[in-house]
Amino acid sequence: MARRPPAAPRTLGVRVRSAAGRSTASQRWLARQLNDPYVAAARAQGLRSRAAFKLMELDDRFHLIPKGASVLDLGAAPGGWSQVAVQRGAGRVVGVDLLPIDPLQGATFLQADMTDPAVPPRLAELLGGKADLVLSDMAPNTTGHGATDHLRIVALAELALAVAQQMLAPGGAFVTKVFQGGSERAMLAIMKQSFVNVRHAKPPASRKESSELYVVATGFRGAEPAGATRG
Fold it and tell me: Does the residue 10 lie in any domain?
C-alpha cells in the first residue's frame, strides 16, 4: 500500500538553475514541484499524481472506500484517485474526464464531457448499477481572479453533486473540491438535505497556500421521487 511522504527537509531546497525561456510563474511552479515531498513520494511509489495522497488522507479520516465498493471518479485524469480506489479494495472503479487517461488495471475510463446528458447513463452501465462513492477532484483552468475562479469551481462542484444524486446508492458518500469563499452555500444546503453528514476537510497533501477544500458528504439519503419535498 502506498505510504504518505515524510515532511520536506527545510534546508535541502532545490533551486531552479536556469530561468532562460521561463516566465516567473513557470519558475515558481517548477521550484515548488522540485521541492514537494508529495511529488517525490508519488514518483517513488508509482502513483499517477501527488493528488493521490489527498484521497488517501481523506479515506483514512472518513473511511470512504469500503472493500468491494463501486466508485465513480469525475475529472479522473491522470487517474491518481482511481488508482487509490483500486489499491484500497474497491470492487469496481469507473473514471471519466475530458482528457484521455492511460489504462489502469481494475478501472474503466471514459473520455467524455460530463455536461453531455448521454454520459450519466453510460457511466451507470459501466458501473453495473449505483455507486457507493462519487469522487470529484475537478477544477477549472484558473484565471488568477479569485472570485471568478471560485464561481467556476462551484459550478463544477454543483455538476458533480447533481451526478452524485443521480448515481449514488442509499448510504453512499460524495467528495468534491471547492475553493474557500462562500458562494457554495446554496450547494451545501442541498447537500445537508441529501446526506446525513456534510463536512469540510483540507487534507495535509493539499498545499497550505492553496485555497482548495474538500466537502465530504456521507450517508446519502437516497433520491426522492419527483415532486417530493422534505419537511
Answer: no
